[in-house]
Model the fold of this input.
Amino acid sequence: MQIHLISAFPNMFEGPLSESMMQRARDRGIVDIHIHDLRDFTDDKHRSVDDYPYGGGPGMILKPEPIFRCVEHIKEQLGETPARVILTSPTGEMFTQAKATELSKEAALIFICGHYKGTDERVRELVATDEISIGDYVLTGGELPAMVVVDAVVRLLPGVLGDMDSAAGDSFQGELLDHPHYTRPEDFRGHRVPDVLMSGHHEKIRQWREMKSHERTAAREKSGATFKSPPDKPVEN
Done:
């Protein structure tokens, strides 16, 4: 997969994309990530990427020209490779695990990181194929949301995780949240690992994990959720 990130503040990506799983994915050639400085696509001596909004009001708006030029430049590099163009925006579709799975099947993704008060509407109408929000709150810019989406997508690519079952069993990958996990020591400050996990009885462990996933999902869900039936028989907890 090719991922292209367009930002007026490209240095924000250096740390998160150079550590842990993201760096391993890049080292293995599973994903090729390019960061584009939006200011490189301006045509004035001040390298301006924003301007005042028509109609007045507070804040500055990202201009369309440098964004159009940058996306067109990237598409020329991609050639025949199709790409989804994602605008990070608080007015966008709420990001979900289903959306991450959908995007993980693409050959190329282009992210336009919103900033300031907003982005010229013509970018959304004429350039973006998707508009994504990661939550109902305000951030300084779209760089952090882009990193969240990239992380969620890249970890689903074959070969990124050592054990694909660990991705398949993640919270939100299916209908239920993940069950609790424990590791050594068996007793930590008087809090013991549940006996069922120490039993070696695989079916009881499976039932316990399923039951805990249902309990956790029901506790977190506000309303209107549809759950699988819990195990018929109670298991040791």
In short: The first strand starts at residue 2 and ends at 7. The chain has eight helices and ten strands.
